[in-house]
Amino acid sequence: MEFEPVIGLEIHAQLLTKSKIFCGCSTAFGASPNTHTCPVCLAMPGVLPVLNRDVVEFTIKMALATHCAIAPYSQFARKNYFYPDLPKGYQISQYELPLAVNGWVEIETEKGPKRIRIHRIHMEEDAGKLIHDEFQPISYVDLNRTGVPLIEIVSEPDIASSEEAAAYLKTIREILRYLEICDGNMEEGSFRCDANISLRPIGTQTLGVKTELKNMNSFRNVQRALDFEIRRQRALLERNEPVVQETRLWDAGRNVTQSMRSKEEAHDYRYFPDPDLVPVVVDENWVESVRAVLPELPDAKRERFIAEYNLPLYDAQVLTSSKALATYFETVVKAFPQPKAVSNWMMSELLKQLKRDDREIEVCPVPPENLAELLQLLDTGIISGKIAKTVFEEMYSSGKQAKTIVEEKGLTQMKDEGTIESTIDEVLAENPKEVELYRSGKEKLFGFFVGQVMRKTKGKANPQLVNDILRSKLGN
């Protein structure tokens, strides 16, 4: 019997508000343990939470960007469970009445576009963090993260493979970053994902027993964890053994999932409306005021790049993968209006360097104006393509402008026909055997001669002149 996976993802995105969801404590990452706390987020007796309006507004933004229906009336609930890093003994979340429902996003798959439905988006507070001692059986509790605002984005079980899961995750992260409401940093925990996965016989509609996967801190680990779990569940089903409903942790070092605990049901949390918080009422005017300030979103920007700049789909997808990268591209194009040339240079040279150094475009040492200047020098023939790559590497490492580097190192392209002809004569004289072979029909040797000329001129000779004079000398 053949089985197919059925996957749903629960994404927790930490919102970029300055203060926590129910108090005025800072949300800044990396502070000394337990310094961003107060009686409210520490759950001291008698304190009362007060909702941060920005949290609601940020959630509305994400709901609109993912085509959700926004509830005019939503409510906070208490989710009861007991962890050492949860001071109240419950988490304030939303349950029966979330802020947003019934949305969708579109992902690209091998078979083309696919719509993944979003079941709900709701607001909640984060828990603290346990830090485990490496040398003794002691754990420390850091409550700085307690009360930091989150939105939970719950998909429908529409995802059919680990590749689709990664594509969906990247799409959600991309939208959050375009909206500037979450930085999407998986390593710091501001963008986290849990996966629910089951298998069922192909052709059936009944869902199988699901497991929940946690502890996946990268797109690659999400894919690897899902692939392992698909193999594990398939092996159990093929042996007619039951799949146990449980929560499993991903062990990246061993490339396996491990059982953590039996999976809780909703009733285990004993949800009930939080009596300290009034319901959230969102009227149409509020929704429309938020809609009016939404930025151009990734899908719309991709379509515009294709139409306005005549770029291929692949180029548009790469260049709009982040808002900052798209802005960089458009700034270069404004100064050097040759979009495809700019795209080629960004994807082949700029992004290669950034990936090598694990840098984001926001901290690129080559400002867009400097890249435009380099491309102008190349386009007007002042430097050759080979020299341009050398100059770019120097620009990236030193932060200098292209013109400065060209002048300092004397890299201006050689255009004097007499000098180039003299160099070609030297190359032909030094390689009589190759000349003879070329004239007897081995035309692939033409590239050899060009390479020798460029080597002698240290890449400065004008390529077109080299080609024209060489062809004339070689008799074709």
UniProtKB/TrEMBL annotation:
The keyword Protein biosynthesis applies. It catalyses: L-aspartyl-tRNA(Asn) + L-glutamine + ATP + H2O = L-asparaginyl-tRNA(Asn) + L-glutamate + ADP + phosphate + 2 H(+); L-glutamyl-tRNA(Gln) + L-glutamine + ATP + H2O = L-glutaminyl-tRNA(Gln) + L-glutamate + ADP + phosphate + H(+). GO terms for biological process: glutaminyl-tRNAGln biosynthesis via transamidation; translation. Residues 327-474 form the Asn/Gln amidotransferase domain. Keywords: ATP-binding, Ligase, Nucleotide-binding, Protein biosynthesis. GO terms for molecular function: ATP binding; glutaminyl-tRNA synthase (glutamine-hydrolyzing) activity. Signal peptide: none annotated. Belongs to the GatB/GatE family. GatB subfamily. This is Aspartyl/glutamyl-tRNA(Asn/Gln) amidotransferase subunit B. It comes from Desulforhabdus amnigena.
